[in-house]
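ingest -> validate -> predict -> emit
validate: passed (alphabet ok, no gaps, 245 aa)
predict: started
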Amino acid sequence: MRLLVLMCAIAMPLVGWLSQTGAFGPDQGTISNRHPTLLVAAGYAFSVWGLIFLLDVAYAAWQATGRRRADPVLGRVAPAAALGFALSTVWMPLFSAQLFGLCVVVIFGALAALAWAAVILSAAPGRGRLLAWLALSLHAGWLSLAAFLNLAQTIVAYELLSTSRMLGWSLALWAAGAAVLLALNWRMRGNVAYVAVAVWGLFAVWIKQTGWPLAGATTSAWVALAIAAALVLQTVALRLRMRHR
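emit:
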């Protein structure tokens, strides 16, 4: 299982590079621009995948060597990490093929697997597991936001709801996304890495939506910023509570 984690981690940047070269079809930016939503983030935000992939590969190589192979917590999260990495890899060619419905299932599956692993690692802290905690927390944090951005694009692509009056259902997605982010952060006792990458994405949504011509974009921008502020305040409160204990 440890080697499977490593193989899946290496596959992610390789498939990501192929995806950006157009090997599977249009790249993600091109497809995203075809289906504008009130939840889309500024393009620069997606550069965080470079850091996520780097840390995932480093963690995967680290957990497969030395004394870490006998760590029971790392062994417990290994299947979930492998599944999350595999689903993250599969998502990229599926998105290029514009199989949006399947993409939503895959990305929420990846989120569930990696969020579970991050929760387990947050409950079993220790310097010996810091790299695992950091890599999986960042990946889970980004997917916690990206999954709802993907869902919004799927709704627009298939015209499941109004594409001219998107604010109502977009606010519903924001509410669901905020609930997931706050609930997982609470379970992880104020996970700074998880929150940092989520705030990075939410701020990028604010940047994009403040200059976006779609009706309701300004409201969506401020909702994203409000969720980011709520996450930061929650994290501070949780960390202070832990310190007092």
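The chain has a mean pLDDT of 94.
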